[in-house]
Each structure stands twice: as structure tokens, then as C-alpha cells.
Amino acid sequence: MTDPLTIRRLYGRAKGHKLRAGQEELLEHLLPKVSVPEGPLDARTLFGDDRPLEFEIGFGAGEHLAAQAEARPDHGFIGCEPFLNGVVGALAKIDDRELGNVRVHMGDALDVLERLPDASLERLYLLHPDPWPKARHAKRRMVNHGPLDLIAAKLKPGGEFRLGTDDPVYCRWSMMVMNQRRDFEWQAKTAADFLARPADWPQTRYEAKARRKGHEVWYFRYIRR
Ligand SMILES: C[S@@+](CC[C@H](N)C(=O)[O-])C[C@H]1O[C@@H](n2cnc3c(N)ncnc32)[C@H](O)[C@@H]1O
């Protein structure tokens, strides 16, 4: 893990609010306890047993991560988010709800994903990824064959990849890219299947903001073949 001071320098001051004392405390005392360790990872190194694993890329302030972890205490959750204020938001939820089944990485999700064994994840969540709306930045989108190859390798056969977006360009792009893949099967049989949020898909902060603006939101569920 990049140390908190470096992270603060990189992300905290540039993009976030100044931290309150309680937040500094969470960063200093809780983060080291729940941080994803260095080196190769599996359920045992992360949680001490062979529990099923779920993974969230870019958890924002952790609303979805915490709600899923609370709903399935016997599963292990790994959440990755580079922004300090988001990490502090997730830590506050982990602390309030006494969640013992969450591990956090303050940095790039792909660095953690690479260190997991192949076919080790039950689910992977990518909710409202940064849209990179300009065509010349399309290569930076998380929905691209490079990251998707890694996601496909780490999901178990029968595991689920969930993608949510309110961005029409990202929605079309994702449909196009995912349609080129033989290793994922889209679960939507009708338009209604991806226009309504499934009951076990807690709303993220970003989604709530999109809804307030009157945006449509699309919910994609793919099963790893
Ligand atoms: C638009 S926000 C959505 C946040 C949250 N998922 C939500 O729906 O409220 C996208 C998030 O992805 C994070 N992100 C971007 N690239 C990432 C990466 N490589 N690894 C982990 N998080 C990443 C950003 O820091 C940002 O917080």
C-alpha cells in the first residue's frame, strides 16, 4: 500500500476537503488494520479462511461496498479507490457497522486484481466508472479489453461482473466492447432488465446524484462463461 502521507499528497489536498480529526483518526488507526497487504493475495491471506470473494473497483465513498459487505458477512470484500476522501468515507462505514469482512486498497484496483489467483472472485463491481467522454481518451476507460481480460481471468466461471453507468456514451461503448467478448454472457433478456436497479444492487452516491439530475441509469449484469 502507498503510505497515507504520499496518498494524501497525491489525492487528498488536490481533490478533497480537509480532513476532520475523526477522519484523521480512521486513516491512522483503522486503515492499517483493513488495508490489502503486499504480495500475492487470496481469501486466506486477506481474511484467514476460504470465504467467497467480491471486489469493487472505484468504490467512491463506499456506500455500495459497505451495504454489500453488511448483507453477506460470510463473504470477503475487497474495495479499491485512490481518493483519500472516498477511502475515509468507506472507513467510517466499516467502523460504524463493525464490518470485519472488508479490505481496502487506497490506489489502483488493477494492481490488486493482478495479485489475486485466477478464478477467485464471485463478483466484481464497476459502478459509474470515470466516463472519459472524449474519443481520444477512450483508451483510459475501464471497459476496454485490457482491464476486461484481467477481470475475466479473476472471476470464477459463473461469477458475475456488474457495471452501472448513467453516461449514454459509456453505455453504448460498454455494449459494443462487451458484445465483442465470448467470455461474458449478458443477462438482460429485455430492456427492463437493465433499466431497473436489481434489489440486491445498493445505490451509490454517484447514482443518486445522477437520478437527482434526471439521468437514466443502466445496470449491466454479465456472467463469466
Ligand atoms: C465517477 S466515480 C464513481 C464512484 C462510485 N463508484 C459511485 O458510484 O459513487 C469513479 C471512481 O472510480 C475511481 N477510480 C478510477 N480509476 C480507478 C482505478 N484504476 N482503481 C480504483 N478506482 C478507480 C475514481 O477515483 C472515482 O472515485
TrEMBL record:
EC number: 2.1.1.33
InterPro entries reported in the protein's UniProt record: SAM-dependent_MTases_sf, tRNA_(Gua-N-7)_MeTrfase_Trmb, tRNA_methyltr_TrmB_bact
GO CC field: tRNA methyltransferase complex
Family annotation (SUPFAM superfamilies): S-adenosyl-L-methionine-dependent methyltransferases
Catalysed reaction, written as an equation: guanosine(46) in tRNA + S-adenosyl-L-methionine = N(7)-methylguanosine(46) in tRNA + S-adenosyl-L-homocysteine
Binding site for substrate: 134, 166, 204-207
Residues bound to S-adenosyl-L-methionine: 56, 81, 108, 130
Keywords: Methyltransferase, S-adenosyl-L-methionine, Transferase, tRNA processing
Molecular function (Gene Ontology), one example: tRNA (guanine(46)-N7)-methyltransferase activity
Pathway it works in: tRNA modification; N(7)-methylguanine-tRNA biosynthesis
Top EC class, one word: transferase
Pfam families: Methyltransf_4
Family according to the record: Belongs to the class I-like SAM-binding methyltransferase superfamily. TrmB family.
HAMAP family with a match to the protein in the record: tRNA_methyltr_TrmB (MF_01057)
PANTHER family found in the cross-reference section: 3-DEOXY-D-MANNO-OCTULOSONIC-ACID TRANSFERASE/TRNA GUANINE-N 7 - -METHYLTRANSFERASE (PTHR23417), PENTACOTRIPEPTIDE-REPEAT REGION OF PRORP DOMAIN-CONTAINING PROTEIN (PTHR23417:SF14)
Role played: Catalyzes the formation of N(7)-methylguanine at position 46 (m7G46) in tRNA.
Name this protein carries in UniProt: tRNA (guanine-N(7)-)-methyltransferase
Origin species: Sphingomonas horti
Gene name tied to this protein: trmB
